[in-house]
Amino acid sequence: MNPPSEVAAPPAQAGLPSLPEVHRSVAVPNAGGFLRKLFAFMGPGYLVAVGYMDPGNWATSLAGGSAFGYTLLAVALTSSLMAILLQALCVRIGVSTGRDLAQLCRERFPKVVAYPLWLFAEIAICATDLAELIGTAIALELLFGIPLLYGVFLTAFDAFLILWLQNKGVRWLEALIFGFIVLIVGCFGIQIVLSDPDWAAVLNGYIPAVSIVTNQTQLYIAMGILGATVMPHNLYLHTAVVQSRSWNLDDAGKREAIKFATIDSTLALTLALLINSAILITAAATFHASGNTEVAEIGEAYQLLTPLLGAGIAATAFGVALLLCGLNATVTATLAGQVVMEGFLRFRLPPVLRRLVTRLIAIIPAVIVTWMYGASGTAQLLILSQVILSMQLPFAVIPLMLFAQDRKRMGVFTAPAWQLALGWATAAVIVGLNMKLLFDAAFGD
Fold this sequence. Notes:
Layout: E1 26-27, H1 34-41, H2 44-49, H3 55-68, H4 73-97, H5 101-108, H6 111-144, H7 148-154, H8 158-168, H9 170-195, H10 199-205, H11 211-214, H12 216-229, H13 232-241, E2 245-246, H14 251-288, H15 298-309, H16 312-345, H17 351-373, H18 375-392, H19 394-404, H20 407-410, H21 417-443
Parallel strand pairs: 1-2
Helix pairs in contact: 3-12, 3-14, 3-18, 4-12, 4-13, 4-14, 4-19, 4-21, 5-6, 5-16, 6-7, 6-16, 6-17, 6-18, 7-17, 8-9, 8-17, 9-14, 9-16, 12-18, 12-21, 13-16, 13-19, 15-16, 16-17, 17-18, 19-21
């Protein structure tokens, strides 16, 4: 009889998995203490977390912080708690079924449902890529003086960076991502110290205010923050990338994998919350407090930081963090694109080709807007891209919840009642806010 680590995969795992180049490539020790096993599972959570701190978050957090002070910190906190719950459900589904969310949707739903879900997922990935493209191009302009339009084209070459990283192995990829995150934290540590925020007001900002729903502008930016935080493509990605670990395939092994992978994603998303909060806090303490309440452009924020804070290092740290966030988020968009295309269509493209196709689609609106409106247009396009993400969320969250409660596929690993209740409540909030935003856009003043 085979030992537990060699147990054959169940029927649900038949066929080539998504991301086959990293599937079950990281060994999990059968012996050792808590920390040793946790270290083996640490990594996928950070791959997912970088999507929660991409340049799209910067645009929404800068706009929210400069216009409304610390008020929208409550949205950042609530969105992060939603993300932690939903990503924990992704871990549970990926580990217990051996399938990713895209594969499950293809298998369960008829084509008339599955193909629109695939289309919505691709739209979400293109919106994400658009934000990364613009953010990275802005960072190149701020740090190196490369014209914005040229920077937009240069970002297409990051596909080769992704290909090289994937060939090195998932652990190398995770290590680089984690290193970037540490540098980003350091950059924002400098920002927070120099901006000297009102900490009592910061804490009060985490308490939800009625104006977030009643004020149409606040709601629009709040939806952007929600879309930039609970990102649709990350739900597909996490169910696939968690399978890079080679856990024992018996129930005990899966239970252990769910526990440690959930800890990994929770810690990573908590770190992402701190970074997103730091962006909004810096904007509130620096711009809102000084009367600059209409700062929504990343370039404008960069130019104002030095005169307002009196230290050139503040602007440099801001630009470096933006560049790192853009490069980081590129990784998740590429991997998520592979998962979605392979899972829904059972069609595989080389990662570099897939990246170039997605980036080409995102480049078209970016070039048009940059050419016609310059930096001011890119700021509005960044926020719009995040609102589009929010609109796509229900088409990923609702299938996720259906599988989380599917006893036929999940068996003993079906999500507990409290997770299902909170998950469906999260889905209801997302749908409700989207409907409110659409109603205001159609019939508001």
